[in-house]
């Protein structure tokens, strides 16, 4: 388990503490639990954004898939 020292503005800190206490109760470790959950959510969100961005980049690339060997779909299934 790691230790992180953060400096955040007072308004954000107070809002975070109030909400964490309301949701988790004021017990030992509630603030760390809430911060861990917030960080996990942030990591998942940023990871999904990166996956989406990479997917968009792949779709924007032009791929040559070969030549078309039939004129219509009927040509494929006409026996």
Which SSEs are present, and which pair or pack?
Elements lengths: L9 H15 L5 H31 L12 H5 L2
Write structural notes for this entry.
This protein has one domain (10-77). The termini are far apart. It is rod-shaped and about 75 Å long. With 79 residues, it is mainly α. Helix content is 65%, strand content 0%. The protein has 3 helices and no strands.
Defining traits:
mainly alpha, rod-shaped, 3 helices
Order of helix and strand elements from N to C terminus: HHH
Q: Overall mean pLDDT score?
A: 90
- The CA-CA distance between the termini, in Å, is 68 Å
Beta-strand residue fraction:
under 5%
Q: What is the CA-based Rg, rounded?
A: 26 Å
Shape: rod-shaped
Helical residue percent band: 55-70%
In short:
With 79 residues, the protein is mostly helical. The chain has helices spanning 10-24, 30-60, 73-77.
């Amino acid at each position: 388990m790691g230790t992180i020292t953060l400096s955040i503005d007072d308004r954000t800190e107070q809002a975070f503490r109030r909400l964490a206490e309301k949701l988790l109760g004021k017990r030992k470790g509630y603030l760390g639990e809430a911060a861990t959950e917030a960080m996990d959510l942030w990591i998942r969100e940023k990871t999904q954004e990166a996956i989406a961005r990479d997917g968009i980049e792949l779709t924007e690339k032009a791929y040559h898939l070969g030549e078309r060997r039939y004129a219509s779909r009927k040509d494929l299934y006409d026996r």
